[in-house]
Amino acid sequence: MSPKSTKHPYPPYGSHFSRPGEGRAAIIFLAPAVIGFLIFYCIPIIRGIHISLTDWNLLEEPTWVGLDNYKRLIEDATFLNSIKVTFTYVIVNITTQTIAGLGIALLMQKVSQSTLIRSTLLLPWLVPNVTIAAITLFILDPTVGLLNHLIGLLDIGPISFYGNSDIAIYTVALVNSWRNMGYTGLLLFAGMQTIPTMIYEAAETEGASTWQAFHHITLPLLRPILVLVVVVSMIGSFQIFDTVSVATSGGPGNSTRVIYLYIYQKAFEQFDMGYASAMAVVLMLGLMLLTIIQLRLARSNESDLD
């Protein structure tokens, strides 16, 4: 009697689809995302790279200039300053937003996990940046602003938060940190829910303090989510435009002229589309490089949870 052959109920990992039609269904479900990616990302990127190699004022036919636009970038003091200003904004924004979000997540973990509180934390994030900028223009106004009225009670003179070139970019960064810290906190709080409670219970049994549990358990096991949040926030921070456009228009001087605003001004105010596209390509490549470096250094694809 020959032994009965046994078949595994599931195909081995990496094998073909086990049922007829599964491959077709997968293609159907993936097609909208793939088509959208090609239409709204790949084609515009290729088109943008092509425009960056031309001199085009939007009114006449583009003229091929090769790498001349990229050579202009090296000699453009305003472009170099916009890179510096943007990096300042990103560092301040990411640092404060991540620290505040982590603090909010810890408070929600320890104090309250109420759905109402979670919804309230999302309210600033749901308000458009343009509205936030308009509101803060009144709150931070040196003459009639509420914040200046409050600090005036402490005998501190009125501060022109948006009008002082030394602090304007920091003001923009902190305003956007306030707007996004609730959303960041919720993402980190969701990541904390994946950490088994038995690990904290074992640490508590061993006499670990709250700080030791946070430092040796929460942070290492939260690393993949934390890296993802930081990378996504960094990409969004480099794309800051609306808050600066409404609140300062790049001023005073060039103190808040971030790279996105400078690209917009070159393209649609000065009609130098080729040069603006070159800046956009450089920004895209820079973001790709920073993202790859950050993911590799933080080992985002690894987890300390065994």
Automatic annotation (TrEMBL):
Topology in the lipid bilayer: Multi-pass membrane protein
Cellular compartment(s): Cell membrane
Record-given protein name: Sugar ABC transporter permease
Residue stretches spanning the membrane: 25-46, 87-108, 120-140, 221-241, 273-293
Domain ABC transmembrane type-1: 83-294
Listed Pfam families: BPD_transp_1
One GO cellular component, as annotated: plasma membrane
UniProt lineage: Bacteria, Bacillati, Actinomycetota, Actinomycetes, Actinomycetales
Domain of life, per lineage: Bacteria
Keywords per UniProt: Cell membrane, Membrane, Transmembrane, Transmembrane helix, Transport
Signal peptide: none
UniProt family annotation: Belongs to the binding-protein-dependent transport system permease family.
GO biological process: transmembrane transport
